[in-house]
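User: I've been trying to design a sequence by hand for this structure and keep getting stuck. Would you show me what you'd pick, starting by listing the structure so we're on the same page?

Assistant: Good idea, let's start from the same input. This is the structure you sent:
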């Protein structure tokens, strides 16, 4: 695991009149993840993790906060009070030409442009590190994320009989 924190990726942004710190995830974000998960509906968590879990475990949060920055990048949007508001993640494939994304915005903050802001920053990062494409698996009933990725130019590929769609954005 890479121990050098990529501090050059920390950004201060303005969202809804509030200053947010968008930065790579840190190992000490565990408590922030737990607090943010409590502000997400079970449905939002299920759609993000694509599983029927009833609560987010400590082990799962450790998996999300202890990242190898050479292979995985996760950004958090942190409010002025230090609360985590959104998380977006990118995991490189083995040949480092494409990567899978995931995103979750706290349920109480959805439909306000935060997901768009976070996903654009993630796509900029993917472009900057030379990725050819970014893709994700999305529940076909998750209209919020499908609308978001459509606005960002992702194409949607359905597989017959599969409740998930593969969305892909080729980077220029």
């Amino acid at each position: 695991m890479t121990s050098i924190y990529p501090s050059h990726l920390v950004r201060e942004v303005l969202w809804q009149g509030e200053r947010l710190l968008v930065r790579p995830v840190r190992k000490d974000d565990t408590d922030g993840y737990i607090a943010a998960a409590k502000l997400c509906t079970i449905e939002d968590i299920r759609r993000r993790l694509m599983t029927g879990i009833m609560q987010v475990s400590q082990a799962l949060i450790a998996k999300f906060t202890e990242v190898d920055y050479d292979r995985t990048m996760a950004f958090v949007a942190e409010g002025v009070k230090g609360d985590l508001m959104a998380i977006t993640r990118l995991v490189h494939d083995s040949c480092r030409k494409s990567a899978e994304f995931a995103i979750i915005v706290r349920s109480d903050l959805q439909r306000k442009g935060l997901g768009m802001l976070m996903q654009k920053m993630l796509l900029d990062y993917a472009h900057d590190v030379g990725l050819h494409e970014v893709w994700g698996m999305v529940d076909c009933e998750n209209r919020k994320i499908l609308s978001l990725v459509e606005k960002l130019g992702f194409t949607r590929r359905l597989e017959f009989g599969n409740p998930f769609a593969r969305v892909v954005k080729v980077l220029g």
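That's my pick for every position. To get oriented when you compare it with your attempt: Residues 114-128 form the longest helix (15 residues). The chain has a mean pLDDT of 86.
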